# Entry
Amino acid sequence: MPPDPEREEALALLPSIRYGRVAMSKHALPFVTVARHLVDGESVLIRIHRGFDYHSALAGNVVAFEAGNVESGASEVWSVQFVGQARLIEPTEEQLERFGPLTERADGQRFDPAYLRIDPEFVTVHRLSGVPGPTGRSRHGPVGPHGPAQHSRSSGHSSGRASGQAPSSPSGQASGQASGPPSGHAPGQASDKASGQSQNADRTAS
# Structure
């Protein structure tokens, strides 16, 4: 089989996530279920809950499988899809170790694993770039009507304090209060009052 770059890319991407979705039809109706997966050579192994009885519909039939990082919040989103025939298997000890611990429960029942091997065919990889974040938010903070919020005022105060420069207003007020007249007296009132007291004293003495 000649090299298939898209197939190789898909098999390289899949190990970076743990769960995908497998789909086919059961009783002429489509269904999709979550599956734990791992790449084994040129095949993909999946683990699903036996209690759903999906494994019996999957075994021996052509199925579709999809997995991607669409829920990661990344701005670069990829999705792998392929179809292939699924077969029930008994995994080796090494494969079981790679699958990791079992899920505890499925729909309230004890999780009972069933394992299948899928040989991917008709593989496609799709990518989306520049995916926006949640509504009303950017990936660099809140967005206002004119773009990302600016913080120049607060950062300016912070830098001034950090460099040892005291705020201008408080120091100016303190200086004015220390050197100026008492609060409530206009300039010149204190000297006029002192001059009047001196004249009264001269009249009394005379």
